[in-house]
Design brief:
Length: about 150
């Protein structure tokens, strides 16, 4: 027989989020109005124990908040995978330099009058890079460009 956790047991942020989600569901089906949702939400954010949360939901049917299990170890939050995971530093450098090399090659062709075959230099570097690093090379400069745009936008 499992023991029922004490209403004095402290709650986590996850428990509060679960309570807010449940309140949102009650509002969406019309059990509570927007003003009551605001009042109850404020009480949820200041609640410290399971008993305080239970009082907020005493007059409401399911759904109620889902609580963390007692004794659950609290660990460090999981970090999202880097968009550059799996790309070596050399691939990053080459991926960043390749677009610059194409632009420089075109500029040299236009300004010096060197024949068009000179464009084969960056194309050859791309082919060698894909041959050495496989498909990861193909998208490394695209990933680097997207990462830079995100950093500039953020």
């Amino acid at each position: 027989m499992s023991e029922v956790p004490s209403p004095r047991l402290r709650i986590s942020d996850h428990d509060r989020e679960s309570a807010l989600t449940a309140l949102g569901e009650h509002m969406s089906v019309g059990r509570i109005d927007i003003d009551e949702f605001g009042e109850r939400s404020a009480r949820v954010t200041t609640a410290k124990t399971r008993g305080e949360l239970s009082e907020i939901f005493a007059d409401l049917p399911e759904p109620h908040p889902r609580y963390d299990t007692p004794g659950t170890a609290v660990g460090e939050p999981e970090k999202p995978a880097s968009p550059l995971a799996g790309i070596s530093p050399l691939q990053r450098v080459m991926g960043a330099l390749l677009p610059i090399l194409f632009i420089a090659t075109i500029a040299v062709i236009i300004t010096t009058g060197i024949t068009w075959w000179f464009i084969l230099v960056p194309i050859g570097i791309s082919a060698v890079g894909e041959g050495i690093w496989g498909k990861g090379w193909e998208n490394s400069h695209k990933k680097l460009g997207k990462q830079r745009r995100r950093e500039l936008d953020g």
